[in-house]
Prior knowledge:
By secondary structure, the chain is of the alpha/beta class.
Amino acid sequence: MLPLDELKIRLTETIAxxxxxxxxxxxxxxxxxxxxxxxxxxxxxxxxSLLNALLQRDRAIVSEIPGTTRDYIEASLELDGLAVxxxxxAGIRHTEDLVEAIGVERALKQLESADVALAVFESQRELxxxxxxxxxxxxxxxxxxxxxxxxxxxxxxxxASAVAALGELNLPLVAISARTGEGIDGLxxxxxxxxxxxxxxxxxxxxxxxARHKRALEGTITALRxxxxxxxxxxxxxxxxxxxxxxxxxxxxITGETTSEDVLNHIFANFCIGK
Length: 275
Ligand SMILES: Nc1nc2c(ncn2[C@@H]2O[C@H](COP(=O)(O)OP(=O)(O)OP(=O)(O)O)[C@@H](O)[C@H]2O)c(=O)[nH]1
Ligand SMILES: [Mg+2]
């Protein structure tokens, strides 16, 4: 094999390895910062009851009066080692009550920073106007937020027409009872699936958690791509050396080492470039 070809292969492999590391960044950030789980639904569907069921304690006030939660309530919980900030919100509905309307607006504002949103419906009932308002919200934000559809109060039955209507959204759908605890484990699993859906990350794998490391790795990749291009253009050793040095300097920002002449000498002793 030609040394230049081998150099190209090594560069390509290294770029692929660093890209794989970079792919772990979103997951790494989640591990470190935790995720934000938003609970949405019309008044009285059992959002606060669901928060309490997830927490296994009574944090939020629950009552049969719709509009009980007027502002959002935050609580921390853990899902298999993953920190979760759960946010119970005021019921989504059209309302003339100013305080409640502000609560609804603030609930929707929370969507912007949510990682997963639980859209809660009443299992035993057909969908009504306020539920459809929530479906609209899901359609509007579906590209940015992972939604899980939840049919609460499954202990009271399950409306076939609601199942059919919700099924059309092609989103995960879980039936639960916040009152009896039925289905809560399945819901937790569905939340985890949403978080880890796009990542094929093994648990023992190194993950990038710092923005500084991410930038350093991106810098390394850019320099390596330039080096690859230099090889293709049959550029001089010097130009290639500059790119490789930049790549090593970028990596050095993580390892704390600066590029030694040895590394470059070693590279060039092994490859007779352009000759
Ligand atoms: N049967 C049954 N009742 C439930 C369940 N979950 C909640 N409820 C009842 O439904 C009513 C409303 O519950 P909340 O948790 O306050 O509902 P919410 O969605 O937070 O309501 P707002 O804060 O008013 O928007 C209460 O009377 C609860 O006891 C359930 O799984 N099964
Ligand atoms: Mg509530």
